[in-house]
Amino acid sequence: MLGKTALIDAIAGTNRGLLATETQKQAILAAIANLEDFNPTPRPVEAKELLDGNWRLLYTTSKALLNLDRLPLCKLGQIYQCIRVETTSVYNIAEIYGLPYLEGLISVAAKFRPVSHRRVEVKFERSIIGLQRLIEYNSPGTFIQQIEAGRKFPAIDFAINNNQQQGWLDITYIDNDLRIGRGNEGSVFVLSKT
């Protein structure tokens, strides 16, 4: 699809938005809006087989995510959003790199609840922040299996009980390998299925 190619081309070289100039940001947002107009899945929340799986972030305008790259001595690695439709769970995982042997991980586990054909409400439940080697992290899939098995990690691992730690996400485009979402804070997310 031409619109999809245009979006991927516009995103290339922006390092998920970290390096995007204002001109590039405008071009990317225009390509996103164009692609959203031709969403092949009119009821994205109901397309469980498309939604389920591990997604890697290609681009975002989320300052909360992009600011992770500003931590001292750290660089932002891959960011994943892993959706488990069966358990209505979502796991956000950011890999952090810096000094050797001090590679880190910032993860948030949440539950989602469909509220329309394209919107899900998200309630954050648990946060895990630690060193990858101490928590034996090697991939999002195995890490999530450990979380779902109830493992406590040698990390900053805490429950999120505050009712204000919630938001919503509109899934505005989804196909077999690309998903676009717009969040309650005005952020845009473009992800590819891994």
Quickly describe the structure.
The protein is built from five helices and nine strands.
Alpha-carbon distance between the two ends = 19 Å
Sequence stretches where pLDDT stays below 50 over 5 or more residues: none
What is the global morphology?
globular
Radius of gyration: 17 Å
Secondary-structure element series: HHHEHEEEEHEEEE
Number of domains: 1
- What is the class in the CATH system? Mainly Beta
- Kindly name the structural category: alpha+beta
Q: What percentage of the residues does DSSP assign to strands (E)?
A: 35-45%
Q: So, CATH architecture?
A: Beta Barrel
The total strand number stands at 9
Average per-residue pLDDT, rounded, comes to: 92
* Multimerization status: single chain
Number of helices, counting only DSSP H or I runs of 4 residues or more:
5
CATH topology: Lipocalin
* Strand order within the widest beta sheet: 1-2-3-4-5-7-8-9
Q: How helix-rich are the residues, as a percent range? A: 10-25%
**Strand count, sense and closure of the main sheet?**
8 strands, antiparallel, barrel
